[in-house]
């Protein structure tokens, strides 16, 4: 596991306090950045089954971030930036 910065930890907490649910694409991006930012090993991830559509979307979103060679530090920064954008777009309950 990668050490978590204070801004990243705050963004994780803040993401759970949005006043409305983000779009599916935004949720997938959050998921992929979170998995990469926490240092989880994509190569050890189980590929979802044929009828696990939600799992496939999540797997593919994570794969896209990995394929772009996004580092854990870059993923954390992108995650924080995305959560800040979502707080503006969807409202935030402090």
From TrEMBL:
SUPFAM superfamilies: Acyl-CoA binding protein (SSF47027)
Keywords of this entry: Lipid-binding
Family membership noted in the UniProt record: Belongs to the ACBP family.
Gene3D superfamilies: 1.20.80.10
InterPro entries: Acyl-CoA-binding_protein (IPR000582), Acyl-CoA-binding_sf (IPR035984), FERM/acyl-CoA-bd_prot_sf (IPR014352)
PROSITE patterns noted in UniProt: ACB_2 (PS51228)
All residue ranges annotated as the ACB domain in the record: 4-92
Record-given protein name: ACB domain-containing protein
The keyword Transmembrane helix is annotated on this UniProt entry: no
Listed Pfam families: ACBP
Keyword Repressor applies: no
Signal peptide range in chain numbering: none
